[in-house]
Each structure stands twice: as C-alpha cells, then as structure tokens.
Amino acid sequence: MRRPLVAGNWKMNGTRSSVAGLVQDLAAMDVPEAVQLAVFPSAVHLGQVHEGLFRSTIELGAQDCAFDAGFGALTGEVSPKQLADLGCEWVLVGHSERRLLLGESDEIVRRKFEAALSCGLKPILCVGETLEQRESGKAFEVVEAQLTAILGPLGIGVFEKAVVAYEPVWAIGTGLTASPEQAQEVHAAIRARLNKANSLVAAGTRILYGGSVKPQNAAELFAMPDIDGGLIGGASLSAEDFGAICRAVGK
Known about the structure:
The chain has 251 residues and is α/β, with parallel strands linked by helices.
C-alpha cells in the first residue's frame, strides 16, 4: 500500500513574518495520520521553517539543489549536503519552471537527482509536458524521455528512495487542471514505464499530481488509482486550503 504524500511547494513566496504565521497554522492542522506531509519553502526560509515545525510531523524539503553533492566554488548554489545538514529530507528536481525558464537539461536534472540521493535526501522528480506537446500528441513521449533520463544511467533501484510528480506544464499556475482521467492516463503510463524495469519498484513508487490542485478538485483527482497524492503550489500557501487537500487525500 502506497502511503499518500502531499507536498507544498511555496515557490518564491513569503517573508519571515508571513512564513511564521503559516508555519504556526500548519502545525495546528488536523489531518489524517495516514497522510505524509512535506513543505518546500524558499531557501532563505528553510532554517526558520525547520525550527517552527520541530515538534510537527510535517517534513521539510528544498525546492532545488546544486548538481554537486559536496562543498566547493559554486557561487549562489546550495549543496544537497548543506540541505541535509539543515534538516531537509526532500528536494524537488526538474521542476518545469527550472527546465523551461532556467534552461535545466535532463543531464543537469539527473546530476541533481543523483547528488541528492548521495546525501540522503529523497528527490521528487518533476515531469510533464507543455500545452503544445500535449496538443501534438507527444505528452507520453515527453514524460517517458524525462523518466528515461534518470532510469537509463541510474537504474530502477533509485526509485525505491524517490517520488515522481507529474505536472502538466499547461496546468501550473494557470488555473487549468488536467481532468482526473487525463491525469490518471499519464500516471498509469509512468507506472507502466517503471514496470518495464521492475514490477515491485513500480508498484511501490508514489506518483503525485501537480497543477492547480485546489480543495474543490482534490478528492476527484486523488480518487484515481495511480495518483498517490499531490505537489501543491498556490494552495499550499494557505493552511486552510492545504489542510482541506490533505484531508481529501486521506479519504
């Protein structure tokens, strides 16, 4: 049985004051124990959030990491070793905003994924297609290529310590959401791709959906058999909305 995971990606949002209030509200949330929770603040707030959630079961993740595991001369980057030392358990790799806006290639994503694992972090590999790619019938092809960039050099075993997040690029921050059937179709294809390498690992790998998930559509999305939780953007900045989504997963 795959344990549902709800991860809140705060992106480039928050001040020390607003983050303090959000952390306090999150720590007081009433959510099912069966649901695993994690939040991904901006790098400048990681220490503050770690301290604020010290007595909470909510886990801490970073939105990105350097592609080198150790220390060194890489101005402006944050090593996965530093993130682990700070108390992070998770890290996002390959988010579409970094792929599309900052030019991160599949090779860079793989190096970050591998570096994170080497430091004991659990990577959440983000995959997804643009609207143009979907409309041209290439959604599965694009997602499979992004998966294969990890599977090829690193092997299926790495997914025993990782999570996949399917985020259709056309549904991120646009208000558009893939229908439950559209999302399930891609989630099933992801699991089928993993299954080609190892059926047991495929069956145990959690695949999250992200893309304008709200309390109003969460239950319908999470009722799909291959959707194991969500990577939540804007709604994770409200403890009320985030809690409602977590409870929808628990059902």
